[in-house]
Specification:
The complex is a heterodimer.
Chain A lengths: L4 E9 L2 E12 L4 E5 L6 H8 L9 E8 L2 E2 L5 H7 L4 E4 L13 H10 L10 H6 L6 H4 L8 H12 L6 E5 L7 H18 L2 E6 L2 H7 L2 E6 L2 E7 H6 L4 H9 L3 E3 L2 E3 L1 H14 L12
Chain B lengths: L1 H19 L1 H4 L31 H37 L1 H16 L2 H11 L6 H15 L2 H15 L2 H8 L4 H37 L11 H5 L5 H6 L5 H17 L7
Helix pairs in contact in B: 1-3, 1-12, 3-4, 3-6, 3-7, 3-9, 4-7, 5-6, 6-9, 7-9, 9-12
Chain lengths: ~290, ~270
């Protein structure tokens, strides 16, 4: 079966021409792929390149990006605009700066709706409730400065999934959050992935988040994918020296009488997902 | 500082209301000539005296204030509208459009615009009807005075263009026009409003400059500019200091704008 997203690209900026070098990734419909790499390895560049928005940051992309049977690099700007938000949703890294400080939450949601409006605007109370936000007019009247970072992150997720896209690109959606809110956001993304069959490209440098959410993982190092495969296998038998260093750098978490490392966490998650497909994903740390 | 700001606002409001209600507050029509009372000193009948044609100076000052205080904001509105149009489009669209628009703006900024105003005004007929001359003067001010505001607005728009929320809105599929109107404009509203208020005293002074050179609002309609013409004869000022009333009012009004919009010095 043809993957939903299949890309092979190189990207860069003036002065840094090789941020991504021949990066190849496949993501099937409804799948979850984690992209791990250290800061500055080109993770966010890849997210913007897929949506063909990298030029706004002064960057350039070369290669091909196959999405749902078409090559995005050959699409015109008008076609790309129709696709952004409706078929591919994006959640940016910094929740607080990704919401317009001068616009009320309701206005921002309405604008995201209007971009692809095929029916009249109705306040998305159900959606807000599903992402764990207050579903009332008072919340929609608030400005971004009046809500917490966790709430802003949820609003961004709600905006990104408003049109039920088939692919969600989440660029470090949990990096600015505390552990409890992180777990809640991960649970939310897992539920959206399951209920809407929405494929997710989950970009992060947080291995625990990746291990608890993604079935497959790709390791990005110095602009190249050095390893890609099942999350459990990659974290239990890392082949590349960089992946080994990553896994070894993780602190051991003492739980009960034993000590869990990432490989056992990932293996436990696999079991957990298989056994309790209908239930929410439980963050391993919460166990 | 806060008290001074309130005082300045109260003073400006008072002058504005007095100029709007000039028809009711003036002791006499501004063009009426009391032929038997030319160059009179202040009296109960003529609180600021009369000019050489016997016209009541207070009435002329009130009506002149109306011309300056109503039309300077109108010119500022026109200038800021043009500045916003150029600045927003250049800053948000970027690329060759930004370079072309900014080259045009730089050209306007570098022009000695008072001389340009004089040239353009001098090309127009001098014997036009008073209200036509008023419209022409302030239209020229508005059309020529947008460039520096456009630079400020462009800088703000360029900052928004590179912001995360603009990127997020594009990723949601928002159209460029919608992005500019809904996402950009509310963020730049304070900067645009500041440019509007800053432009008003600038245009008041520009009209006064033109008026002093006889190229502003034409007689018999009074404006602060043509009322200041009388000060050209400085000897007369020593003999009749009440001739300074329009100059004093002009300085007080511009100072009022300055006090309202200047920020408190954080170092003090």
């Amino acid at each position: 079966m043809e993957p939903l997203l299949s890309l092979r690209i190189s990207a860069g900026y003036p002065g840094r021409p090789a941020v991504l070098q021949d990066v190849a990734l496949d993501l099937e419909a409804g799948g979850t792929l984690g992209l791990v790499g250290q800061s500055g390895s080109g993770k966010s560049t890849l997210a913007l390149a897929i949506l063909r928005l990298l030029h706004l940051k002064g960057g350039r992309t070369e290669g091909r990006i196959q999405f749902a049977g078409r090559d995005l690099t050959e699409c015109g700007e008008r076609e790309m605009r129709r696709l952004r938000g409706r078929e591919i949703g994006l959640v940016l890294q910094s929740a607080s700066s990704s919401l317009n400080p001068a616009l009320r939450i309701g206005t921002q949601l309405r604008e995201a709706w209007r971009a692809h409006a095929d029916s009249a605007w109705e306040k998305p109370f159900e959606l807000l409730q599903s992402v764990g936000l207050h579903a009332d007019d008072a919340f929609l009247r608030r400005l971004p400065g009046e809500i917490s970072v966790g709430q802003a992150q949820r609003v961004l997720i709600a905006m990104a999934v408003l049109h039920r896209p088939s692919l969600l690109i989440a660029d470090e959606p949990t990096s600015a959050l505390d552990l409890i809110t992180q777990a809640e956001v991960l649970r939310l993304l897992a539920a959206l992935n399951r209920e809407r069959n929405m494929a997710t490209l989950f970009i992060s440098h947080d291995l625990l988040s990746i291990a608890s959410y993604c079935r497959r993982v790709a390791i990005l190092h110095e602009g190249r994918i050095v390893e890609c495969g099942e999350t459990g296998r990659i974290f239990s038998q890392p082949a590349h020296p960089y992946t080994r260093r990553l896994v070894e750098a993780l602190p051991r978490i003492p739980l009960a009488a034993s000590s869990l490392n990432l490989a056992t966490l990932a293996a436990r998650l696999e079991e957990d997902l298989a056994q309790r497909a209908a239930a929410d994903v439980v963050h391993p740390q919460a166990e | 500082m806060q008290t001074l700001r309130y005082l300045a606002a109260a003073f400006l409001l008072m002058v504005f209301l007095a100029s709007v209600g000039a028809d009711f507050l003036s002791p006499a029509p501004y063009e009426r000539q009391f032929r038997d009372h030319p160059n009179e000193p202040p009296s109960r009948r003529f609180p600021l005296g009369t000019d050489e044609l016997g016209r009541d100076r207070l009435s002329r000052l009130l009506h002149g204030s109306r011309v300056s205080l109503l039309l300077a904001p109108a010119a500022a509105l026109l200038a800021v509208f043009l500045a916003a149009l150029v600045g927003l489009s250049a800053g948000f669209l970027g690329g060759w459009f930004e370079r072309a628009a900014m080259a045009c703006t730089d050209l306007f900024v570098s022009l000695p615009w008072l001389f340009l105003l004089l040239t353009v005004r001098a090309l127009l007929p001098l014997n036009v009807a008073p209200w036509t001359s008023v419209s022409i003067t302030f239209l020229l001010l508005g059309l020529l005075g947008w460039a520096s505001s456009a630079r400020v607005i462009r800088a703000g728009a360029a900052a928004v263009r590179g912001s995360d929320f603009a990127l997020q809105a594009r990723a949601a599929g928002c159209r460029t026009a919608r992005l500019m109107m809904v996402h950009l404009l509310p963020n730049l509203r304070p900067a645009i409003a500041a440019q509007f208020w800053i432009s008003i005293p600038v245009f008041i002074w520009s009209e006064a400059n033109l008026g002093m050179l006889g190229l502003g609002v034409t007689e018999p309609l009074p404006s602060w500019g043509n009322l200041l013409l009388e000060l050209a004869n400085y000897r007369a000022v020593f003999a009749a200091p009440w001739l300074l009333a329009p100059a004093v009012l002009l300085v007080l009004v511009s100072s009022g704008f300055h006090f309202i919009f200047s920020k408190e010095d954080p170092c003090r």
